[in-house]
């Protein structure tokens, strides 16, 4: 029995049914915008060549049907199959490519469509284009990674919405979405390329976002500090005139006594925080990833 071809046929049927349930009300309620494939390709062509690097990391916070993620994965797999010929190398680096693609999406049916489309891209490269025989559990591992990296989440609230039996988001008395109590999680994947090992580290997504904000503010603080330093150099003559003859005045003293610079110091001192993982899984060979569910 050709399991892979049957699965692809079933997936195509699911995608066809999905397209038929789109409605104007749904689009209005959730602001879905369907970007055509040709436009996605043109937009990605404007990015640096890093978009095709196997280990480049991409996260889409409102993934929709996954049209961008599909094209990114296709370009990554082009690189994998161009660079490697051995089946085990192609399997491992396909996993590396997929582990570095993330999609966050509010609507549950969209999440399922993204997973199907990404899985179909992988099967297309291995089966249709290259007629390759894979390890028995390879596509089960692909599905597991997709279940972890394609996340049903409101990326603004950092939580997963609650759905009713009809897969509609449940609303509270005020008309707002109802969410699960626990914060949504996201996984980082680390790789031992020489031994084809994979390690998974799980975080709360909100903690990662806050850490990114912190890093941004630290960079802005550093830029502001450089600007102040440049201003001091430009006004160096002014400081020299104020200093006593032959008296050595420290750079910091000048900085601290300059009222204009003090008044422009609007960025607070920010200390780096420690990002604490929720769970850390052991490093295993890529074919044993299913043991870490």
From TrEMBL:
InterPro entries: SAM-dependent_MTases_sf. It comes from the Bacteria. This is N-6 DNA Methylase.
């Amino acid at each position: 029995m050709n399991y892979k071809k049957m699965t692809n046929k079933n997936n195509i049927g699911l995608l066809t049914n999905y397209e038929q349930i789109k409605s104007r009300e749904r689009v209005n309620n959730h602001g879905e915008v369907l970007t055509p494939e040709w436009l996605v390709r043109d937009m990605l062509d404007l990015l640096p060549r890093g978009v095709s690097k196997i280990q480049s990391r991409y996260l889409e916070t409102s993934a929709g049907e996954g049209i961008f993620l599909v094209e990114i994965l296709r370009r990554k797999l082009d690189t994998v199959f161009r660079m490697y010929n051995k089946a085990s190398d192609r399997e491992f680096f396909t996993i590396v490519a997929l582990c570095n693609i993330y999609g966050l999406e509010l609507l549950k049916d969209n999440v399922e469509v993204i997973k199907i489309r990404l899985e179909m891209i992988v099967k297309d490269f291995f089966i249709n284009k290259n007629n390759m025989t894979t390890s028995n559990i390879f596509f089960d591992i692909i599905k597991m990674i997709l279940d972890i990296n394609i996340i049903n989440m409101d990326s603004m609230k950092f939580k997963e919405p609650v759905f009713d039996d009809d897969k509609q988001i449940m609303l509270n008395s005020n008309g707002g979405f109802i969410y699960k109590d626990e914060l949504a999680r996201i996984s980082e994947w680390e790789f031992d390329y020489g031994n084809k090992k994979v390690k998974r580290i799980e975080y709360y997504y909100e903690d990662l976002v806050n850490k990114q904000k912190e890093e941004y503010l630290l960079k802005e603080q550093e830029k502001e500090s450089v600007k102040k330093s440049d201003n001091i150099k430009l006004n160096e003559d002014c400081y020299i005139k104020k200093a006593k003859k032959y008296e050595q005045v420290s750079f910091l003293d000048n900085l601290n006594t300059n009222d204009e610079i003090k008044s422009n110091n609007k960025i607070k001192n920010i200390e780096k925080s420690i990002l604490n993982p929720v769970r850390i899984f052991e490093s295993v060979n890529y074919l044993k990833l299913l043991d870490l569910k």
